[in-house]
Amino acid sequence: MAHVSNLIGADIDAYLTQHQHKSLLRFITCGSVDDGKSTLIGRLLYDSKMIFEDQLAALEADSKKVGTQGANIDFALLVDGLAAEREQGITIDVAYRFFSTPRRKFIVADTPGHEQYTRNMVTGASTADLAVILIDARKGVLTQTRRHSYLVQLMGIRHAVLAVNKMDLVGWSRETFDAMVADYRRFAEQIGLKSVLAIPISGLTGDNIAAKSAETPWYDGPALMEHLETVEVDEARRAAGPLRLPVQWVNRPNLDFRGFAGQIASGRVKPGDQIRVAPSGKLSTVARIVTKDGDLAEAVAGQSVTLTLDDEMDCSRGDVIAAADDAPETSDQFETTMIWMSEEPALPGRPYWLKIGARTVAATITEIKHKINVNTLEHLAAKSLELNEIALCNISLDQPVAFDPYEVNPDMGGFILIDRTSNATAGAGLIRHALRRAQNVHWQSIDVTRAARAEIKGQKPAVLWFTGLSGAGKSTIANLVDKKLHSLGKHTVLLDGDNMRHGLNRDLGFTDADRV
What we know:
Elongation Factor Tu (Ef-tu), domain 3, six-stranded mixed beta sheet
């Protein structure tokens, strides 16, 4: 059987023309271990005729060698590419696959079910419009099902499908299906997950995947593929929002041209529109919309363009070109939801780089307000944040940035924290809102300068820092130096670490968190 589109084989140009203007749906599959996520994606690829003859032959051979379905094709092998995944029969990394139908294009992310790979699941969910949450009809709603459902809600995914899989193993029992759905909906209401469609399926046999199954005459909803083809995507909603174009590059090939390049995150723009640059707040007017194919009369969300303005505006990489009458907020302090992705724990006071859009600034976690137990939704007190943990945190930056709350515009409200030493991604965050105190803290001018203080003391100021291991003699040496300077008539102040722990720092201990 040739599983390849006849149109691709006959006329590639006609195929590209036909598929160029289809809408794109990004979705993820998630759920507990062995609920059938990879098998479902393999079945979708197979039924949408996106497997070539050589791939099908290799799949049949691999199924006999390392498959888990006996003599049948193991569709999970289409997605589980790592050797460790095939050996253990699990998903570890996020696997992305593209396929299309006559009605729509799709990019699907197969995310791991194990708790220790939660950060991988968050990565896959960060760009998704829809989530397919699988549960095994024999097992029901499990802990990891709840965890992934909470993350789906947290990441702002607007549409969810509850796919009750392996229904063939429970005899296509309507009572089993209804009980599973009722149990899940109770949990979904607790976390605020709305718009959930439940579908009974079998990824192995293909029932209710590409077409309605005769095994479920009692089910009157759509097959999974039909729902994926017709569900509303976020493209229209993004285009209807206010203009947001994070500037990625100032395009200046010569003295006669200066443009600001980037991908439009939301809204639309036309020549003649008045815009505001954030965070500076300066106004200007769009002169041209330049692309490699020529100037455009209008550009919308998702398009990569270069805007030229009618005046010499101070605008650089990391700034945001926005609608003049609906600009983003600016702040340097936020309340955020953090998902920690590093083996090194997050500690208040430790410096990081924060990247939001195209801007990178220095950042510090000022407070971990509480951790969230995703399994029970309890709020737990915390002084640090470990790998895969989620918490509500306050963050302070060294300069204001433009933003929208994540629930309003994920492209403008999502960020990552970067370890300054290794440049590895330490955590991902979602901005909830700015802290009011952020706009009220200013540097105060002081009339008595350093030079004036030095003049009245008759000496040049200096700081001597004695550091080393505990018991190395730092306090002893510092005390001797202090005595010597005093004997020379110099004004000194000795700050000893142990003495300070009796006063302002009495709540500090000697752990890594206390030493930040």
